[in-house]
Amino acid sequence: MDPSNHIPFNKPFIVGKEIEYITQAVMEHSHIAGNGPFSKRCQEWLVNQLGCRKALLTHSCTAALEMAAILCDIQAGDEVIIPSFTFVSTANAFVLRRGVPVFVDIRADSLNIDEALIEAAITPRTKAIVAVHYGGMPCAMDTILEIANKHNIRVIEDAAQGYLSKHGDRYLGSIAHLGCLSFHETKNIISGEGGALLINDEQMNLRAEIIWEKGTNRTQFLKGEVDKYTWMDIGSSYLPSELVGAFLYAQLEQAEKIIAARSKIYRQYHTGLKPLQDRGCLEIPLLQEKVTGNGHLFYVLTAGLEERTRLIRHLKERNIDALFHYIPLHSSPAGQKLGRVSGTMKVTDDISQRLLRLPLYYEMKTNDVNRVIEAIHQFYKT
To answer: Residue 209 sits in a domain of what CATH number?
Structure first.
């Protein structure tokens, strides 16, 4: 195979002043540890753009979820309702606090948690609901918040894939009590590793800063609010390096340009593959303009596992990388040991065996997208 003809599933990229800002952090600011000038600019940017009350950069979305679990005071035996069709970090953050993930099935249209099944999963031990916005498609937040308010439980948005997607006129991550973002290199806006905790309940602001700073009140000390800093609470080293903040700030400056490019690719896939859906060969997701999506990923749903395996092989033979997604958490060894299932997992089990994600990255060319589309058409001709 010709390496120059390879279409990877994902490709990290530089879009603006990433290298300049990293150099500036080292040479001018002389600060490459956490919470430096660029990190603070990123946090201000997120607050101003997304409309959250407070933003704290973290070294990953996993770290943001772990902070959210602490802020929600998850204790041994407390239950947290989550979809099974999600990344392991969504569950791990609460299991680390000895909480119990309660798995609920997803909707077939959005692949998000089925809000109609949430209330049946609530028990006296339920402490929180995690709304995972799959592929940047918003969960039914109005209904989820209504249920949570009725039962006096917290809602956390796992918006790892949702930067700049909207639910109505509000950005994902800024709607529930807490929101968690990812800037991993597989996401739209990247910093290699990285994430952010968005705090929308102001009563959590002070404790969030303490947890973020290894359980100390160092942030308040640096602001001059206390005369010395000391150990106040549990916490950990959740801050990213300033080099991460410098890279990320350059990406945030170009965020709308990046989202526009990815959304264009999403629409190209949708237009090119819709004839196959119309013929009943496969299924494709909703056209995201209807929900103000961010073009994070594009998937197809094949007839079954065997067909998906053949399609992956067909694309690989043409130097195109395509990947399936999550193994459902409820069927994993850890999920069976540490969590429980509410209801059936009919949709989750079905989708997980049929879903295939197609290449989608900022620098992907129109001709490359057409190559993928044509290869899929060729597969269904045969």
So the answer is: 3.40.640.10
